[in-house]
Amino acid sequence: MSGELSPNRARFASVVRADPVDVGLACLLIGCEVDPDLDLDAALAVLDALAASARTRVPPGSPPAAAGEGLRRTLGEQAGFEGGSYDELRSSLLHEVLRRGRGLPLLLSVVWLEVAKRLEIPAYAVGLPGHVLVGIGNPTGEHVLVDPFSGGRLVDRSQLRGPDGRPVPAEFFAPLPATDLLLRLLNNVRALTGRQPRTLPTAATRLWAVQLSLLLPRHPVQLRRERGELLVRLGDHLGGAQELETYALVVADAEEKTYARRAARLARAQLN
User: Fold this and answer.
1) What is the CATH code of the structural domain delimited by 7-178?
2) How many CB atoms lie within 10 A of CB 53?
3) How far apart are CA 76 and CA 101, in angstroms?
4) Hey, which end of the chain has fewer CB within 10 Å, N or C?
5) pTM of the model
């Protein structure tokens, strides 16, 4: 990507390339796209306070089922975290989820993971088709699955079904890598804009979701095409043309190359 990054985006790029990835901080930096003056330390302090509240319910060395129950009582019952609307951007912003106690499954799972991390409870995200759960314990040993979207209820893996009605394949229960989780979050934002009216503010929201996705270590090459198209739509014809030309250089499909080069020429023509 060309151009100088803002301080928040530069920090996001650094965080997502660290090992391990600080998922909570990365999610809060995504929120800075909506609220550039977001107090990151204050939001992180909320997670610290939730962990402190859960500590008495989850003694060190608690088995997975007991740890899951302690977190459910703290985050589900006491703090009231549960599912929110799929049609609101704030359901995909961690600072808003912390403020309201409502969010998408992925963001609620991040809350659980961040609290578990602070309590040194082994936990991981499980990326099922259309839903995200949290696994507590050893993914290849003793563990339980919980659904933060429904307040943290225990989930019986054998009863889970995919969109086709069949049992969910075993590979979906492997821990979801942090950068994959973040890409999935940004894809949720893009999907939301696809359900909204085609306005310039909607396009601007979709653009920052694409731009952050491109800062991840791994991302679909097609996002470069989308970024170029969005830049052109928002009036940056030169930047859009350059992005489309870059996309034409890296994409393998011949038809995509032809399309991108033609779109870039049309964008440049609007500069005359």
Assistant:
1) 3.10.620
2) 15
3) 9
4) C
5) 0.94
